[in-house]
């Protein structure tokens, strides 16, 4: 089994791309979804967040007010670092569990949707392929403002909290440009999907070749040992 790391910038279109991969039957693990689960009130990360950020970041029902926490961490790098240090180890542990689940289920590759894949670049070495979902700066900004109802300065602060998309493009093996319409993105995902399937075939061919060479080598040794004086 191999891993495909998928990333992008905030509102660049990762979920849009991942939806097409899911439609094609691919296994996908979404770090944003896990990040939401690990801060539920019954977990340790929740207590740590309340301890460091105070009860003012809680909603009336006791859950974390994500908007309030986002406003803090996207404008204070040291607080972002603190939140990352609380949540990231738990997110990685849960991702590992899910990778194992898909391995047991027999999936041949798994797509990991990790927004900060290239920022925390220790993870990229476990990926056979990396994919970047790009959108041009103006499109990214306007989609983010519209989706989250943010003012331009707030949206710019969120974008600035991540490595620029142009930098990430240089680090990725594949780029999907989501600056255009849905159909154009869909076509690119279909093309990439068939490339990933081809690379899977290539892996199988290599595995068969290695097994065949080992088998022939064993047979030659056997013959030499038994038939040579
Ligand atoms: C700050 C939080 C509360 C904001 O929640 P909200 O529901 O508004 O946004 P959501 O979780 O859907 O994230 C949206 C996007 O924000 C960006 N983002 C989230 N966390 C971070 C971060 N620590 N640094 C930079 N960008 C981030 C990502 O591009 C992500 O896809 C939340 O994102 C969070 O808990 N972040 C810390 C965990 C984390 O790093 N998550 C990213 C996946 S590893
Ligand atoms: N090709 C497109 N055309 C028009 N709108 C789009 C397109 N792709 C995405 N969008 C819209 O842009 C917004 C961001 O897209 P999406 O949620 O897929 O990004 P994301 O990278 O997963 O975001 P985040 O990391 O912040 O959660 C959404 O409101 C989505 O509907």
From TrEMBL:
<dbReference type="GO" id="GO:0005524">
    <property type="term" value="F:ATP binding"/>
</dbReference>
<keyword id="KW-0472">Membrane</keyword>
<dbReference type="GO" id="GO:0015937">
    <property type="term" value="P:coenzyme A biosynthetic process"/>
</dbReference>
<keyword id="KW-0808">Transferase</keyword>
<dbReference type="GO" id="GO:0005737">
    <property type="term" value="C:cytoplasm"/>
</dbReference>
<dbReference type="GO" id="GO:0004140">
    <property type="term" value="F:dephospho-CoA kinase activity"/>
</dbReference>
<dbReference type="Pfam" id="PF01121">
    <property type="entry name" value="CoaE"/>
</dbReference>
<keyword id="KW-0812">Transmembrane</keyword>
<keyword id="KW-0418">Kinase</keyword>
<dbReference type="InterPro" id="IPR027417">
    <property type="entry name" value="P-loop_NTPase"/>
</dbReference>
<dbReference type="InterPro" id="IPR001977">
    <property type="entry name" value="Depp_CoAkinase"/>
</dbReference>
<comment type="similarity">
    <text>Belongs to the CoaE family.</text>
</comment>
<keyword id="KW-0067">ATP-binding</keyword>
<keyword id="KW-0547">Nucleotide-binding</keyword>
<keyword id="KW-1133">Transmembrane helix</keyword>
<feature type="transmembrane region" description="Helical">
    <location>
        <begin position="203"/>
        <end position="224"/>
    </location>
</feature>
<protein>
    <recommendedName>
        <fullName>Dephospho-CoA kinase domain-containing protein</fullName>
    </recommendedName>
</protein>
């Amino acid at each position: 089994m191999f891993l495909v790391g998928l990333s992008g910038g905030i509102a660049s279109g990762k979920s849009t791309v991942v939806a097409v991969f899911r439609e094609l039957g691919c296994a996908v693990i979404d770090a944003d979804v896990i990040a939401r689960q690990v801060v539920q009130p019954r977990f340790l990360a929740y207590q740590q967040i309340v301890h460091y950020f105070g009860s003012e970041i809680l909603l009336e029902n006791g859950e974390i007010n994500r908007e309030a926490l986002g406003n803090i961490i996207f404008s204070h790098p040291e607080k972002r670092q603190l939140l990352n240090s609380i949540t990231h180890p738990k997110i990685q542990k849960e991702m590992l569990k899910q990778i194992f689940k898909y391995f047991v289920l027999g999936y041949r590759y798994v797509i990991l949707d990790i927004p900060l894949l290239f920022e925390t670049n220790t993870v990229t070495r476990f990926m056979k392929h990396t994919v970047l979902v790009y959108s041009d700066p103006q499109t990214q900004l306007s989609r983010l403002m519209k989706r989250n109802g943010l003012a331009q300065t707030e949206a710019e602060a969120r974008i600035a909290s991540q490595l620029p998309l142009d930098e990430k493009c240089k680090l990725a093996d594949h780029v999907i440009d989501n600056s255009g319409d849905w159909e154009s993105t869909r076509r690119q995902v279909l093309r990439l999907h068939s490339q990933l399937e081809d690379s899977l075939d290539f892996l199988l061919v290599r595995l068969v070749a290695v097994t065949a060479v080992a088998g022939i080598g064993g047979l030659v040794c056997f013959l030499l040992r038994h038939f040579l004086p």
